[in-house]
């Protein structure tokens, strides 16, 4: 696309590791690699963070309640614990939602907590939790109530699952109530929380409702899309324009009933592999719905994703419609790209965020002619870097073992074989073998260039060092990093919450992103950091007579 | 409607908190620790706590908020977090080189009973605390009190670990700052300078959370109370605590430990609270009040008098922290406004007593503190009978939009507007700023909503 910028990044590792205590340096060394897509190196990922290192990572609760379940509007999400966890996950993720009418349930602007006090810690909090559920029902009469465990809950032995069962019985099964053992300490990052959320979605919601009236022959699920800044709205627009029915999105702009009907779709598309691949696999095992990795981040990626849908359904009319939409949309997008390109072409970026965004956004940067010098995840696993082919070689450690593994079996009554060697063959012919990503994900390292620095669980110190040594034109991370980086005179684009921008997904989103990046790399104020009297070129004053 | 499920019908809630007017202790400790120069706050618990607190503080200040965590795993939750904290201390001093690590606990480390004294002494024994460096700590269990309590506990820890009495008292007054903005602290210091009073403020977030952009990230910005100053607070002749909930414990400890007498006044928000602060400072620093300050006061009086018609009788709902709400309600009353609904999630009798006294002439008032004194309840009261103005943190914007009510942002967190850390609300100047904000909110609303024939050039 644009001009590639070459920077030697091989010296970084040595430059940065010296500073650490010996043992720490040894551990960090395995998480910092120079990429080689042809001979992919092993990267350390999903491993405990070293205490004191200043990490970007959060906790299991954040991944479960905040990320996966947060965007669903009609569940009353009760945080069982002291007030903080509920408070910090209250409206802080920009997952937008739109009800069909003013009468529909929307609990997203609310924060519900049992606000545990010391007496609850000493004597147990189950009774308070039960009472809180009764009060939630009396005040809000929701379809579903979810309970999220915070750190002390597991330690004092409150059983949220038992409480959920008991309350369900008390309400004669009129309200679906389920709990999550997502105590913050359970995993090494948010990732454990995603997994725990996936399990419970499967156990308590997916498959509950067979009563569907199909709106289209082509029915798909979209997994791992959280409607930050309205991303899901834009993807919904594209699907609608193409005549494809979106049965469910996990979980941007979602409802309980969409989850309950997800098993009736014929295809699953996976955006954020890290946070939701478990549900994708469960849907395939139980119901025979095949899943494919896609991304709607980037105009070309969005086109590719829709072409995958076309190739799968293999219906001439649908294919024609999709191609028409792509052509129409890309024309407008290209015009916007040409406006941004003169400002962005040849610039460099670094991306340290999430479990898929640090990969997906490279497409958008490529479209802008921006080279990604370095990237890494906050909570990705090795498969998110190296591709799913390495899964059998990943060692299961104690931190992964304490996440419940659920047994998923074929649902004999409702299983429908959809994926045949013939379908796959046709898809491979249409798209190219590597592009299909059926039950597969090629990972970040298949895309980022040779020699690029890939760093897992970047520490604050490493971030400063990256900037000091390589001066990227734009740095992408989250709110905790934003202002430290900007103090160094480099604009930081938040890729968790998009600052206050977005959507960035789909075709409209790509144009928003082009515009926002062009804006950020041409921020004038950064040129004014030095006062006139601090600049070297200031001429000494002389007297004029 | 955004809060479409909120109805006027209250039920007798015993367990469920909805839309809290508080958060948990550790974030208060983290905020206060940023007010010591060269200090890195450290959260002893799960990673999420530290991440959430840093995010919340960062969104509010739009400034870097650096802090570290013990990164508890399931193992540390079972066997104790000692090894994690010792390793954290080693890593922090080696890589980030602060002068002080200020560790605070979380509900996790408190529930498993980690003994901070023991762990920190182990860190010293293991030799991971370099010569001349400090590790201080405080207990901040999230299931006791609120963020306000955490702030108070951290400030008290400063005194516990640093304040020292030598035989020689100095003619200095300690200003123990309650939870307020960096700009508020800067304004209080400015007033003290105008009075020519010698003071030490602690904690002091000015020049920390309102730092200039100079092309470098300073892990430890130039602001914050220095260690020598913090030590010297023990030799000061008097302490003025600004805000009972956040500073009284520290004042008491300083009195017990170093015999520094004290007086706790309100945070100087509004006319009368500033009057009391200036009077106290003048008396205890033994300096006269110069005309410059009296003039600032006069300008505030002038502004209120000139615009009194717009303030008079306006019904106001407020939520936030006791140390802010008490002087703020008093200020509104002094402008003849009517604070009618007030909630704070922070428990404590002093709030109830002060509110009863300040609002004694407003028979329709409803106020509540502690558990379930939340924004949902306040909104239900508003649904029962509306108000003319809302004052509180950003969470109020949902009520403001639903009820079409003017809204002034004040408190923590403010995540959708900027500048609150620049624009003081303390002192006479700050009170004038606040009165201007209130007036503009009321008049903007009037202009936006009145009938065309009632739309006027002059107001």
Automatic annotation (TrEMBL), chain A:
PROSITE patterns on file: NITROGENASE_1_1, NITROGENASE_1_2
Domain Nitrogenase/oxidoreductase component: 59-520
EC number, as in UniProt: 1.18.6.1
InterPro entries, A to Z: Nase/OxRdtase_comp1, Nase_comp1_asu, Nase_comp1_CS
Keyword check for Metal-binding: yes
Any one GO molecular-function label of the UniProt entry: nitrogenase activity
Keyword Cell inner membrane attributed: no
Organism domain of life: Bacteria
Pfam family name, one: Oxidored_nitro
Coiled-coil regions, chain positions: none
Entry cofactors: [8Fe-7S] cluster
Top-level class of the enzyme under EC nomenclature: oxidoreductase
Catalytic activity: N2 + 8 reduced [2Fe-2S]-[ferredoxin] + 16 ATP + 16 H2O = H2 + 8 oxidized [2Fe-2S]-[ferredoxin] + 2 NH4(+) + 16 ADP + 16 phosphate + 6 H(+)
Keywords: ATP-binding, Iron, Iron-sulfur, Metal-binding, Nitrogen fixation, Nucleotide-binding, Oxidoreductase
Family: Belongs to the NifD/NifK/NifE/NifN family.
PANTHER family: NITROGENASE MOLYBDENUM-IRON PROTEIN ALPHA CHAIN (PTHR43457:SF1)
Protein known as: Nitrogenase protein alpha chain
Species of the source: Breznakibacter xylanolyticus
Lineage: Bacteria, Pseudomonadati, Bacteroidota, Bacteroidia, Marinilabiliales
UniProtKB/TrEMBL annotation, chain B:
Domain (Nitrogenase/oxidoreductase component): residue spans on this chain: 24-442
SUPFAM superfamilies attached to this UniProt entry: Helical backbone' metal receptor
GO molecular function list: nitrogenase activity
Keyword vocabulary terms for this entry: Nitrogen fixation
Gene3D superfamilies named among the record's database cross-references: Nitrogenase molybdenum iron protein domain, Nitrogenase Molybdenum-iron Protein, subunit B, domain 4
Organism: Breznakibacter xylanolyticus
UniProt-listed InterPro entries: ChlB/BchB/BchZ (IPR050152), Nase/OxRdtase_comp1 (IPR000510), Nase_comp1_CS (IPR000318)
Protein name from the UniProt record: Nitrogenase molybdenum-iron protein beta chain
Family: Belongs to the NifD/NifK/NifE/NifN family.
């Amino acid at each position: 696309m644009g001009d590639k910028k070459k920077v030697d990044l091989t010296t970084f590792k040595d430059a940065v590791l010296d500073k650490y205590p010996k043992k720490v340096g040894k551990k960090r060394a395995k998480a910092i690699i120079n990429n080689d897509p042809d001979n992919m190196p092993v990267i350390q990922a999903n491993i405990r963070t070293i205490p004191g290192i200043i990490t970007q990572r959060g906790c299991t609760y954040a991944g479960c309640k905040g990320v996966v379940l947060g965007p669903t509007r009609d569940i009353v999400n009760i945080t069982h614990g002291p007030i903080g966890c509920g408070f910090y996950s209250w409206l802080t993720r920009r997952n937008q939602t739109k009800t069909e009418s003013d009468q529909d349930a929307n609990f997203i602007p609310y924060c519900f907590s049992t606000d545990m006090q010391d007496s609850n810690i000493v004597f147990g909090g189950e009774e308070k939790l039960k009472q809180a559920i009764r009060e939630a029902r009396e005040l809000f009469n929701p379809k579903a109530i979810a309970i999220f465990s915070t750190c002390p809950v597991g330690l004092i032995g409150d059983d949220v699952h038992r409480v959920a069962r008991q309350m369900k019985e008390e309400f004669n099964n009129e309200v679906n109530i389920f709990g999550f053992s997502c105590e913050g300490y359970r995993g090494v990052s948010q990732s454990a929380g995603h997994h725990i959320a996936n399990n419970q979605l499967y156990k308590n919601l997916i498959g509950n409702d067979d009563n569907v009236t199909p709106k289209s022959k082509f029915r798909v699920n979209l997994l791992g899309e959280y409607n930050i800044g309205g991303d899901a709205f834009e993807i919904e627009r594209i699907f609608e324009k193409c005549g494809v029915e979106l049965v469910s999105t996990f979980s941007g702009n979602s409802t309980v009933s969409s989850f309950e009907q997800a098993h009736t779709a014929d295809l699953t598309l996976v955006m954020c592999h890290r946070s939701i691949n478990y549900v994708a696999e469960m849907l395939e095992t139980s119901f025979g719905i095949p899943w494919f990795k896609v991304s709607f981040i980037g105009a070309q990626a969005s086109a590719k994703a829709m072409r995958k849908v076309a190739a799968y359904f293999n219906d001439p009319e649908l294919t024609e419609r999709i191609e028409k939409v792509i052509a129409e949309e890309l024309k407008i997008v290209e015009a916007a790209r040409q406006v941004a390109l003169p400002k962005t072409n040849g610039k460099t970026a670094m991306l340290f965020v999430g479990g898929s965004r640090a990969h997906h956004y490279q497409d958008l940067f490529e479209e802008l002619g921006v080279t990604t010098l370095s990237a890494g995840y906050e909570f990705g696993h090795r498969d998110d870097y190296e591709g799913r082919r390495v899964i059998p070689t990943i060692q299961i450690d104690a931190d992964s073992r304490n996440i419940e593994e659920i047994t998923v079996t074929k649902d004999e009554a409702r299983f429908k074989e959809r994926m045949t060697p013939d379908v796959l063959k046709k898809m491979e012919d249409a798209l190219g073998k590597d592009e299909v990503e059926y039950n597969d994900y090629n990972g970040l390292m298949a895309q980022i260039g040779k020699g690029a620095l890939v760093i897992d669980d970047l520490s604050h110190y490493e971030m400063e060092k990256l900037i000091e040594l390589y001066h990227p034109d734009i740095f992408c991370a989250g709110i905790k990093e934003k202002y430290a980086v900007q103090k160094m005179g480099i604009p930081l684009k938040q890729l968790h919450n998009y600052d206050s921008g977005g959507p960035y997904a789909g075709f409209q989103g790509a144009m928003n992103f082009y515009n926002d990046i062009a804006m950020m790399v041409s921020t004038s104020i950064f040129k004014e950091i030095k006062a006139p009297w601090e600049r070297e070129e200031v001429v000494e004053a002389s007297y004029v007579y | 409607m955004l809060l479409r499920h909120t109805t006027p019908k209250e039920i007798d809630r015993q367990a469920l908190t909805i839309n809290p007017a508080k958060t948990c202790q550790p974030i208060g400790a983290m905020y206060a620790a940023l007010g010591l120069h060269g200090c890195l706050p450290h959260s002893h618990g799960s990673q999420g706590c530290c991440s959430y607190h840093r995010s919340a503080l960062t969104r509010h200040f739009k400034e870097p908020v650096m802090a570290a965590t013990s990164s508890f795993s399931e193992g540390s939750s079972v066997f104790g977090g000692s090894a994690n904290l010792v390793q954290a201390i080693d890593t922090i001093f080696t890589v980030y080189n602060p002068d002080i690590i200020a560790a605070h606990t979380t509900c996790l480390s408190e529930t498993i009973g980690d003994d901070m004294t023991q762990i920190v002494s182990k860190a010293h024994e293991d030799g991971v605390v370099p010569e001349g460096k400090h590790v201080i700590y405080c207990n901040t269990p999230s299931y006791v009190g609120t963020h306000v309590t955490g702030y108070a506990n951290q400030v008290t820890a400063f005194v516990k670990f640093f304040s020292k009495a030598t035989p020689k008292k100095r003619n200095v007054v300690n200003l123990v700052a309650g939870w307020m903005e960096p700009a508020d602290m800067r304004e209080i210091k400015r007033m003290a300078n105008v009075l020519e009073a010698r003071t030490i403020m602690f904690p002091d977030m000015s020049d920390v959370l309102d730092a200039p952009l100079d092309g470098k990230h300073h892990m430890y910005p130039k602001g914050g109370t220095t260690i020598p100053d913090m030590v010297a607070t023990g030799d000061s002749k008097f302490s003025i605590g600004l805000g009972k909930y956040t500073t009284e414990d520290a004042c008491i400890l300083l009195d017990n430990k170093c015999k520094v007498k004290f007086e706790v006044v309100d945070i100087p928000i509004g006319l009368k609270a500033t009057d009391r602060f200036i009077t106290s400072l003048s008396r205890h620093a033994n300096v006269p009040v110069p005309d410059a300050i009296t003039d600032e006061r006069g300008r505030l009086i002038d502004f209120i008098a000139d615009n009194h018609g717009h303030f008079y009788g306006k019904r106001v709902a407020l939520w936030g922290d006791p140390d802010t709400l008490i002087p703020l309600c008093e200020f509104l009353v002094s402008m003849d406004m009517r604070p009618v609904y007030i909630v704070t999630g922070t428990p404590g009798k002093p709030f109830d007593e002060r509110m009863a006294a300040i609002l004694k002439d407003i028979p329709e008032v409803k106020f509540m503190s502690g558990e379930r004194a939340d924004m949902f309840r306040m909104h239900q009261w508003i649904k029962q009978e509306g108000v003319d103005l809302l004052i509180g943190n950003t969470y109020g914007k949902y009520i403001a939009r639903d009820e079409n009510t003017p809204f002034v942002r004040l408190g923590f967190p403010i995540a959708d507007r900027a500048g609150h850390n620049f624009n003081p609300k303390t002192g006479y100047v700050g009170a004038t700023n606040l009165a201007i904000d209130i007036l503009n909110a009321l008049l903007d609303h009037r202009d936006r909503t009145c009938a065309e024939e009632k739309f006027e050039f002059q107001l």
